[in-house]
Amino acid sequence: MFDYKLLSALAAVVEQAGFERAAQVLGLSQSAISQRIKLLEARIGQPVLIRATPPSPTEIGRRLLNHVQQVRLLERDLQSAVPALDDEGLPERLRIALNADSLATWWATAVGDFCADQHLLLDLVVEDQNVGLKRMRAGEVAACLCASERPVAGARSVLLGAMRYRALASPAFIARHFPGGVSAELLPKTPALVFGPDDFLQHRYLAMLGVDGGFEHHLCPSSEGFIRLTEAGLGWGLVPELQVREQLASGGLVELLPDKPIDVPLYWHHWRNGGQLLGQLTEHLTRSAPRWLVPLA
Known about the structure:
Blueprint: H1 4-15, H2 19-26, H3 30-44, E1 49-50, E2 56-57, H4 59-81, E3 92-98, H5 100-104, H6 107-118, E4 120-126, H7 133-137, E5 143-146, E6 155-169, H8 171-177, E7 192-194, H9 201-208, E8 217-219, H10 223-231, E9 237-240, H11 245-250, E10 254-255, E11 262-271, H12 275-288
Parallel strand pairs: 3-4, 3-5, 7-8
Antiparallel strand pairs: 1-2, 5-11, 6-9, 6-10, 6-11
């Protein structure tokens, strides 16, 4: 039989990125958390954590994390059916990985009422849409919003729609770098803005235009900062249309190649045995997301 106090210690260490914060969350000493992890490893006969900064789960550790997250959600269903079992009355906490641009645009409005109605707290992990699924694979989250269609084992995925990105720059940047007019061939020779090392959207965009090879770029791991740098003329960037409607209307930002957007699909991944709460959130997102996302061609 599983000892869920030990599994909770493992989950807390991974979710809180360390033993000290895990101890604070569980109301225990750091020594007690360490002892629980050691006892868990002794019982299963192999390590569950890679002792690094931050700690990361081993393969068996990931399987245990997947299990304990699904158990938490199923326990909530049982507590709803048998209220006497819920002796704490605490809100449910759901750990979700999603891309920064969704968080900066449509996500909050989409889930606000649902979280209030369901007494749900969110623990959000921001990852680029191209790599967010690794968090589910590692057992660190119960759900994930990303660009990958294929789910991990034990999970399902549903297409919510696509975020439309447009290549934008400030008028001053365009005047400085494209005095004779914007062309696809000139884009790699002008400074671009990239969200991070895992962001290949600009590469895909240039390939779509028939342009290969590298390009000059700044790295800016902030959706809001990305807009500010674009407005300041540091570079051109692919920006969510949802995020810059005012700037486009006022002329503060200008599309480099009109009618050449690029759409990024967004798939919602969730555990099959995630309980009613995760199923209800999935249904809610399926209904509400099309208000902000475009159909995928």
